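Entry: LysE family translocator
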Amino acid sequence: MLTYCLVMSGTPGPNNVMLAMLGANQGYRSSLPFIFGINMGLFLQTVLCGLGLGSLLLAHPRLHAVLRLVGVAYLLWLAWQMARTRTGTQARAGRQPGFWQAAAFQAVNPKSWIKALTLGAVFMPAGMPPLAGALLIGLVGWAIGFPCNSVWVMFGAGIRGFLADPRRQRAFNALMGLTLAVLAVSMLRT
């Protein structure tokens, strides 16, 4: 379970692409609410999947397919917004996504659903009361996810100096938007 959480939390996906961009555009400290929101949303998603929501989605493939399509459509819209993000002082002065946006985003993030469904279906501890088991796998996901998310933000913050040139920052934002779009389209195949 630890290895699975590390791979899912540390590899590129919609959350991590957005975290790298947030780090580059606004730094680590300003990105903390978004990191906490991602982890809270994933925690709740994992607990609910451990308590049976995952079984409901697996039993109703059409519901799962609709959720996937809505998630991919939202990711494509978000990719477009990321690619168009303003640079420099204008970007920092604009409305930045925070805790609640990040937590709610997990409901349409296909990679988050894959992680939560797998944790709930494969890693629920045998012989443990369902709520306790669901809370345990949710907490393990949080404990692994938070540092992984922080690394992505620190990567973005680390390249801020390089992105001081507005042309580079626009190119970076466009690249992050394109990366998110590619990830979204690839999720249609899973």
